Amino acid sequence: MGLAALAALPLSLRAYTEELPGWQLQGDGQMRFFGLLVYDIRLWAPARVGAQWWTQPLALELTYARSLQGKEIAKRSLEEMRRQQSINDATGQRWLAEMEAAFPDVKEGDRISGRHDPAVGAAFFVNGKPSRSVADPLFSRLFFGIWLAPQTSEPALRKKLLGLPS
Predict the structure, then answer these.
(1) pTM given for the model
(2) How far is it, in rounded angstroms, from Cα 89 to Cα 17?
(3) Would you say residue 138 has pLDDT above 90?
(4) Which residues 6+ apart lie within 8 Å of 56 measured at CB?
(5) How far is the C-alpha of 101 from the C-alpha of 118, rounded, in Å?
(6) Where are the beta strands (DSSP E) in the chain?
(7) From CA 105, how far away is CA 69, in angstroms rounded?
(8) How far is 83 from 2, CA to CA, in rounded Å?
(9) 18-62, pLDDT tens digit by residue?
(10) Domains in the chain, ordered, with CATH?
(11) Rounded distance between C-alpha atoms, residue 110 and residue 104, angstroms
């Protein structure tokens, strides 16, 4: 990987350049709520992400434009995961605890990145430093499905990330 390509990677992926060579920006967009920017988001992957995105390694990088509480990020994430599939209470509570441990309170400019490994699960990074791993492929699929699954609450953002026609 050349220096320019390495510099373009989010900090959370730079440490994995030997393990994940050739990762490239696939798409980007912004999450807005009532017109206010909440975060910028970018999708990274070693190969073009297709309709069966959950079968491919990928990473999402969110750069926050405002302060948010980590517990609220986790709670909203679980709500969005439930849009895709029913999640029983015990599993939901376990996943909520994992996300609460992974996601700190954020302020403008903070970055949370997540890496999806379809066979293993998810790994999270905060401002480029490892935060938490969740060794559960279903958790990972539903978590990244918040943005990439057809059931997302933000279909226009999904299209931008996946490079689909509007």
Answers:
(1) 0.88
(2) 38
(3) yes
(4) 45, 47, 49, 50, 116, 118
(5) 21
(6) 24-33, 36-45, 58-64, 111-117, 121-126, 129-134
(7) 4
(8) 40
(9) 445 678 889 999 999 888 999 999 999 988 998 899 999 999 999
(10) 3-14+25-162 (3.50.70.10)
(11) 10
